[in-house]
Amino acid sequence: MPKLVVRLPINRVRSLLRRFGTWWLKEFLDLFPERIVELLAGGGKNRLVILVDQDRAVLELHRGYHARVASPGIVGANVLPAIDEFLRSQGVERRDVDVGIQLPKESVFCRQLLLPSEAIDAIAAIVADDLARKTPFKSSDIYTDYATLPDDGGKKQIVWQWITRRRHVEDALSRLDMDVETLSFVTFERNEPDQPVPFINLRSGDRRRHAWYEKASVALACSVIVLALLATGIKYWSQQVAMDDLAARIATVATKARQVRASVDRLHEEKNALMRLRLRRQEEPGLIDLWNEATRVLPSRSWLTELRLTEGGEKHEEKISMSGFSSAAPSLVGIVDGSPLFYGAGLTSPIAFDAREGRERFALDAKVRMPDIIKEAAR
Fold it and tell me: How far is it, in rounded angstroms, from Cα 336 to Cα 367?
């Protein structure tokens, strides 16, 4: 018999897990104030952007991703002291700020790649290889960076790559009398409204923060699985506790049921004893006694349509006649004959099945025992 082999698409599972983790992390971060979210996501550090013009520079202090404060234009090449003075006026030290410059949009080359979501773990290698094969740029002459955006419901990844020549950055820094080591990033004017702002990170800190964000997303996705397993275990444990409690209750009820059954048996015995006393007390049974006895001995699926007591013969023997319907009519003769009040039972007409009643129609006679026989049978 051939074996069924199931191969799991590992990359697809990773992609789904990452997407779910990202959604879970977003919902989790929505519980916190915006400032805390920016700190957790790596966007809480201040950024100082130097807007380079022909004869002056303007400083913009970006707090998080939103609020920004601009300085008056700085004329001249002595920029670092002006930066320190501007930051002190805002209550910030330069070591707590990422410093970058903004260049014109003509200084950046933007390209777009569309990759499947399964390749998200190898995007850096794919982008670098594609840059080397399809563009004339050399890695020693450029600064480059990229950003990824989900597309097509998360099945694809849009990769935006930005490239600028090193000489553009060096020319701008030469006018500011600054070294490239003092910069953390290079940004540019937006090319198109529907495109992300070009941003080239010159350090690995943001990448590490982004990696932390992805790891946190995956960790939270795994935590959902752990919580689901934990919830399943708790539910199973609760059900088991409920079943054990139910079993204990059933045992208690069964004990009470046995006690009730014993009480019913005692009542039945007392009823039989009362019947025997009534038979002994009377010299001969009456119609009510015979009616009760007939009701007692007949099976539960039998009922009478006629009960008649007659007296006749030289010995003044009493005879009782019964007719009705029963699901066990052939056995009624033996049942009636076994009563302490009746003997000599016999059918007076053939047994016939009644289709409308769904039972057998019967008619039988039996003799009633005399008082001395009743007392003897009662003993």
Answer: 10
Q: What is the pLDDT of residues 61-110, one digit of tens each?
A: 887 655 566 766 665 556 788 888 888 888 888 888 888 888 888 889 99
Residue 102, classed as helix, strand or coil, is strand
In sequence order, what DSSP letters do the residues of 51-101 get, joined into one string?
A: EE-SSEEEEEEE-TTS-EEEPPPEESS-HHHHHHHHHHHTT--GGGEEEEE
pTM of the predicted model as reported, rounded to 2 decimal places: 0.47
- Strand 156-165 to 142-151 pairing: antiparallel
The C-alpha atoms of residue 71 and residue 84 are separated, in whole angstroms, by: 12
pLDDT recorded at residue 10 = 60
- Residue 40 pLDDT exceeds 60: no
72-97 residues labelled b (16+ CB within 10 A) or e (exposed) = eebeeeebeebbeebbeeeebeeeeb
CA distance 270 to 262: 12
Please list, in sequence order, all residues whose beta carbon lies within 8 angstroms of the beta carbon of residue 19, skipping any fewer than 6 positions away.
Answer: 117, 150, 154
Q: What's the sign of the alpha-carbon dihedral 321, 327, 330, 335? A: negative
For 323, the 3-state DSSP assignment is strand
63 φ/ψ angles, rounded to the nearest 5 degrees: -95, 110
Name the one residue in this structure whose structure tokens are 């409308």: 356
Phi, psi dihedral angles at 138 (to 5 degrees): -105, 140
Taking only Cα atoms into account, the Rg of the chain, rounded to an integer number of angstroms, comes to 51
Cβ–Cβ < 8 Å for 148, 161:
no
Asked if 93 contacts 87 with a C-beta cutoff of 8 angstroms, the reply is yes
pLDDT tens-digit readout, 149-204:
766 566 778 888 999 999 988 888 888 888 888 888 999 987 777 788 899 988 76
